[in-house]
Amino acid sequence: MATEILMPALSPTMEEGNLAKWLVKEGDEVSSGDVIAEIETDKATMEVEAVDEGTVAKIVVPEGTEAVKVNAVIAILAGEGEDVSAAASAPAAPAPDGAAAAPAADSPPPAAQPAAPAQPVAVVTAADPDIPPGTEMVPTTVREALRDAMAEEMRADDDVFVMGEEVAEYQGAYKITQGLLDEFGARRVIDTPITEHGFAGVGVGAAMAGLKPIVEFMTFNFAMQAIDQIINSAAKTLYMSGGQMGAPIVFRGPNGAAARVAAQHSQCYAAWYSHVPGLKVVMPYTASDAKGLLKAAIRDPNPVIFLENEILYGQSFDVPKLDDHVLPIGRARVHKVGADATIVSFGIGMTYSVAAAEQLAGEGIDVEVIDLRSLRPLDLDTVIASVQKTGRLVTVEEGFPQSSVGDHLASQVMQRVFDYLDAPVITICGKDVPMPYAANLEKLALPSVEEVVAAVKTVSYRD
Amino acid sequence: MVAKAKKASAGAASGRKSAAAGRAPSALQAPSPAKFSTEQELDAYRQMLLIRRFEEKAGQLYGMGFIGGFCHLYIGQEAVVVGMQMAIGDGDQVITGYRDHGHMLACGMDPKGVMAELTGRQGGYSRGKGGSMHMFSKESDFYGGHGIVGAQVSLGTGLAFANQYRGNDRVSLTYFGDGASNQGQVYESFNMASLWRLPVVYIIENNRYAMGTAVQRSSALTDFSQRGASFNIPGMHVDGMDVRAVNAAAEHAVARCRAGEGPIILEMETYRYRGHSMSDPAKYRTKDEVQKMRTEHDPIEQVRARLIKAKQASEDELKAIDKEIREVVSQAADFAQTDPEPDPSELYTDILL
Hints:
The complex is a heterodimer. Chain A is of the alpha/beta class.
């Protein structure tokens, strides 16, 4: 019986990879454990071992192929005594969809059809007023955008350096610092021991002395070890010193859920940090915002919490080709202009919001989508103006529901423009549970496009 | 010399030989006390007396309700900061915990500004927004004033990191107590400081009590000079009641750091006469213990006795110094009581730059 060799998933969030190299050719005998290929993920180059013995009957995906979906058949192995050519020509089983690597969760029930088909509205992403019209745009991943931002600022200012676990020789646990060690050397790209509390404090001390550290946390979940230094030392010193001494420092790293990493590696800290005076808090969605806001964060004389997301790292967005693309911290961006209801979100919450807006457009509901980008300072004016226009508000985030960012927005909107509201605000959050591991439960614990769609319909009295 | 703190209960730390024998961490011998010139003796006397009188006044103002919240006095420990400070120069940084008034005065900060901060007035170093535990002065290279026990150790290590990054020869003097010595981030910082050979002098002011808990009751290894052993950081015991002994150790440590040889620990055996804070009746120790320390080891009396005995200063001259210092402290106290409170608008300033 011929064995299909499938594209393996080599990290929690990997959906596809490049088949960099075959180390065997058709006709070769392999035994279990032999390295047969090299796969390049967005995080590393990994070797693939044969898990069975036999003869390579057919190489289905040639080397050099990019974006091979996880679970796609990449080769066929003929078993002992099996006719190699027969095995090679045997109809390969339909390659599982790449997304099958993602949890095989219970499918949500299909969305109910609207009673009366409405006229679809066109979805047009609004232009960012901070980017000059006509600027050439280059598709860039969030990962590259973050690295470019750091590299540009490090070229411009010798006081800027990056420190954290695996940022240098390993090239970054998530490859965000890839190439920085080569360009800037070990003085400015510093591998630390696994001591978040200690190196956060060392970073703050260096910042108090006038340097501009970028402290990378492998995930913000680990930054809970360091939160005393972030809050008590970095955020409060300027005030406690009567303005004499601040901490120009950036704490950055992935925040929130990745995929299947369970409760201790999946928490979103947006609401936590947004609570604290003395901090700026940024949580970008697009690559353009990631780049422009990280550059702004590095130049900012205040401590900035820069919350990234592992799932977004590999996503591509247009990034303006500008010599110095810097965006203002504290200003929201209208991602899509709309008239019927307002969705406010940030970070990965935008993925649900954008998909929901597209679906709703097909049903004739024209939603305005606001990407907050910064959570502190919070651009309430943009939110208020939108609510005054639409009269309806849905907020979307992955964090826990109690004392969420959405709660704060709802409270502010209620206090400031109560009379403009045509329906109670709905705040969509992650569920009020530690993140479960099981694929179906994890999916249930996170917000979904369906929830956002349903919420917009509820506030629009369309359900 | 202060009696050494009793060793930890037998066997706890000494029961087994280190598996990683090889390089025993160096337990350094403290150098002989520095030979002070008359000028240096008088300088040390003056500075220690300023701290003593300032703290006594702060205690009074607290009792009168002018100072609120927590107020931790440095009385008894003056020789430590004064002896250390005499060994450093411009650009060397100082950072400590919340028992910080003495460090600020030794760094040359204005007693008026410090006292006015204690009373929460606009003329205070932090414009009244920091209080006793949170004062800073970039001008005087004083980096606080930190209320979280042990936090200053990581921060002070970061100051040393900045010196190395900039390639200058400045040194970070990072002070903390026997209590802070049990905090985890202290050891995280030791590890990085040694790994990267950062120019930091860790000064452990062992005043024998972490708030009300005696070192024997809180610390498995009460020889704090060896707390860097796992990180290959050498350490020495220093008589923290003798300003000359402190100074000699300081000179050694600072020179070592400037030469790029990495961090060092100085365990200062010292004693605080007052309670942990103003509200501490200090029932955890006997009056005799305190009295014995005051009469036999007082850092200021030691200098005074030497000056008189060697005829380097007369009683009258010392009285004149005392009078002058009382005047400085009195002016600081007057200022701190009459200076206005911060303007209400200050509530919303200095949050972000």
